[in-house]
Description:
By secondary structure, this protein is an alpha/beta fold. The chain has helices spanning 9-15, 33-48, 69-78, 87-92, 104-115, 132-152, 189-209, 215-236, 241-244, 251-279; strands spanning 22-27, 63-68, 119-124, 161-167, 180-183.
Amino acid sequence: MRKNDRIEIEDLWQRLTREHPAAVIQGYPGMGKSTLLLRLTLYMARRGRGEADPLEELSPMLMPIFIRLGRYATFRQQAKDDHNPSIWKYLSSAPKELEELGSPDMLAWLRRCLERGQCLILLDGLDEVSDPAERFEVQEAIKSFIRDVCSKASGKTSYNRFLITARVAGYDPEAFTGYRHYTIAELTPEQSAAFLPRWCRASVRSDVQEQNATKEEIEKKISRDAAAIELCHLCWALQDFRRLATFSPYLPRYLPILILLILLLPLSLSWEQRVQQENL
């Protein structure tokens, strides 16, 4: 691809071919690398359950396997006596995020899915392996796993696909030569305006439900946080921000502090209310 080419997730899916089943997705912190892989995991899980999903159809339906590479690196460190702590051995150990694999029957079923080319393996967070030497070993383990799985896959109509995420900073360009590389693009102002309220609603609802909050409390917190985020979005999206400096050279310097105070004000009020209740 040329540097400035932009593609959609459906295009990325079509570019994962039998000859090139693996790709590296790079991005800066907070750009959505893990979110993308989790979204694909959710999509495939819904498809497997026969449920609808707003994402355009990605065919074929595959069994998603989401692996956090930071946790795999920890597994490798704890298995120092093992000369080959492979990814398959990690899956066989029934890690916390894949504890359902603790059953021999489940592992046998997973192996059959891999051999039939019916899996989507999502390897998230290469940058979470901070030690360069360990990261090199993890990279080699990934390539070995992909080669092994692809060599054993016998399905003619289906094949396994692999996605690896990594930050741009510190990434070794020679790590996965032969794999296609993509970089997550920044959101446009219109996409940001549409995304932020939805993200706020989902995030707040998840947090307060864990605290057994009432429906009214949930809606109040959603409205308050959404308003604060939208205010920040408006400040950051000012197209003529430089012109404000002509009125006050200190405004650009202190605007971030002003935004922070606005965001913290609701939190300080909530804390003050709790203190008053405890003193009653």
